[in-house]
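PT: before anyone asks, these are the final sequences, not the draft ones from last week. 358 residues across everything. Please model them as a single complex and drop the result in this thread when it's through.
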Amino acid sequence: MRILVINPGATSTKVAVFEDKQKILQEILQHSVEELDKYPTVMDQKEMRASAVEEFLRKHNLTIDQFDAIAARGGILPPVESGTYIVDETMVDYLINKTKVQHASNLAAVIGYELSKKASRTIPVYITDPVSVDEMIPEARLSGIRDIERKSLSHISNMRAVGIRIAEELGKKFNELNMVIAHLGSGISVAPFEKGRMIDVNNANDEGPFSVERTGELPVGDVVKLCYSGQYTKEQMKKMFVGKGGLVAYLGTNDLREAFKMAESDPKALEVIEAMAYQIAQEIGAMCVALKGKVDAIVLTGGMAYSERFVDMIKSYIFKFAPIFVVPGEMEMEALAYGALRVLTGVEEPKIWRPQEV
Ligand SMILES: Nc1ncnc2c1ncn2[C@@H]1O[C@H](COP(=O)(O)OP(=O)(O)O)[C@@H](O)[C@H]1O
Ligand SMILES: CCCC(=O)OP(=O)(O)O
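LR: through. Structure below.
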């Protein structure tokens, strides 16, 4: 079985080709800030990113007819249960016209679906574990005011894939263990998995620790003051939280490696990195509490987990809580391909997504 995987992120589109479980090709198609700035909304980037994917296929002498399926990163649908979903007109219409949150992941299913329509035969398109998977327990949902309910928006597909891998290493099934998994990428998700179910998670756009480009949680009173100061538009405020927050705000870079270089001559830069590690460790501690302290493993994954020095900073706070495993980078492309493969091989029934009001 040959599967095309499409995974749009904030500044790049990752594309891969799988032959069954084997990844035979992967490229990160970078989109410059200048290029992205031309588009008022994320969905406006659709044609540009789709062309980049088609160019990737041409470059490797591939045509869409040569694929058995397209696997796309799932976008911001209303809260859904985990699993693999068929991409159809209803889902595509929701992602283009109705989704409440703009995010690059919304492009994946849309680009995949439009690409599949160019084939001379039916090529199914699937998403697996979209970012809006919601398995939170009731007590995790309350924010403290009626008008705001906490949202489950996370790096679920990588976290689950990594959790399954660590469980295998431990000779167990994922749903036999309790784990706290922290995805440490441009955005940060920290989630407690109770016997495979993600019972809570910080919204990677709005909550939790600050990251290389996001503020995470902020003192709410001061945020209100800034909003009403007349100094910033709504768009500028949003950019301040996601894109220009965290390391970018303090050090002007979203690259942890660059930040460590700065720290060689600037103690303030080291302080910022240490503060990020401290906040991540605090979030991990909070999620150990969600599991009532019964934690079989803590797993650190994502791009920042490549840095041993940064991982050691986090470990210094949490080493007493549970055994710690590190899986640098991400297994998201695998998670998406394997989800499609499970459906193609009949191991799993695909789900059909419908908005609740229909
Ligand atoms: N080898 C490395 N050492 C230290 N930091 C790294 C390394 N590789 C990536 N990173 C950092 O990881 C962060 C991005 O993580 P990543 O998981 O690639 O994010 P995303 O895919 O969400 O953009 C960046 O700050 C980057 O500097
Ligand atoms: C919206 C939650 C998932 C997320 O933050 O993904 P990115 O880091 O790819 O923006």
